[in-house]
Description:
Blueprint: E1 2-8, E2 10-13, E3 19-24, E4 26-39, E5 50-57, E6 62-68, E7 74-80
Amino acid sequence: MSKILDKPVRVLANPDGVPASFFYRRPQRVREILDQWIEVGEWWEGDCEKRSFRVKTEGGGVYEIYRRASDGEWRLYKIYD
C-alpha cells in the first residue's frame, strides 16, 4: 500500500544529484537508493523531465522523491507502507 503526496520537500543531495537526506516531518537520512529513473512526462502537455528516486531511509521507510529539471524543485511523490 502507498500514499501519494506530490508536495515540495527539502532535500540535501550529493554532488552527483543523488539525495542523501530530506525533511518529511523530521530529518530522513537515505540509507539506500532502491531505484532511480528519468521520466520525460507528457511534454506536449507541458510536463518537464523529472529524475526520480525510490529510497529507503535509516528508519526503514520507503519513499519516492523526484527533482524537476525545469526549476530544480524536489518533491516527495509517494510514501510506501
